[in-house]
Design goal:
This protein has 129 residues and is α+β, with helices and mostly antiparallel strands. The strands form two sheets. Strands 1-2-4-3 form a four-stranded mixed sheet, with no helix packed on it. The chain has a three-stranded antiparallel sheet with strand order 5-6-7, with no helix packed on it.
């Protein structure tokens, strides 16, 4: 069976208390027994992404720091195909491939605080789900 971690990080930028927060958080994920992770609210942008070199990772595209989602492989042999993201960084869909489980389609969402019904309807109408 494939396993995964879902978490909201409330920002993975360096701080005075945690100057290496992105690295430490990634290490915690890699120490888990999960195959992959969906992370919301990374606050990464295309030009400021300390995880940009993670092989086979998928990042939702958004220039605003208060959003951004990431789909990160945590085990050898795990990769993603047919990814779709929205232009505002709210969600990612992809097919997950692991060496020990059939491919599965997943959708990770960082939901809006208001207008939920319109937001969910928009996600459901997107190609790739």
């Amino acid at each position: 069976m494939a396993s995964f971690v879902v978490c909201n990080t409330n920002g993975l930028h360096n701080t005075q208390l945690f100057p290496d927060k992105p690295h430490r958080f990634l290490q915690h994920l890699l120490n888990s027994s999960a195959d992959f992770a969906f992370i919301s609210e990374t606050h990464f942008t295309p030009t400021n992404n300390p995880w940009a070199l993670i092989l086979n990772a998928i990042f939702a595209s958004c220039m605003q720091k208060q959003r951004r989602c990431a789909l990160i492989p945590l085990r050898p042999g795990v990769h993603f195909s047919n990814p779709h993201t929205d232009e505002e960084g709210w969600w990612i869909t992809a097919t997950v491939h692991t060496p020990h489980f059939p491919p599965m389609r997943m959708c990770g969402v960082y939901a809006l605080n208001s207008g939920h019904h319109k937001f969910i309807k928009k996600i459901q109408s997107c190609r790739g789900l």
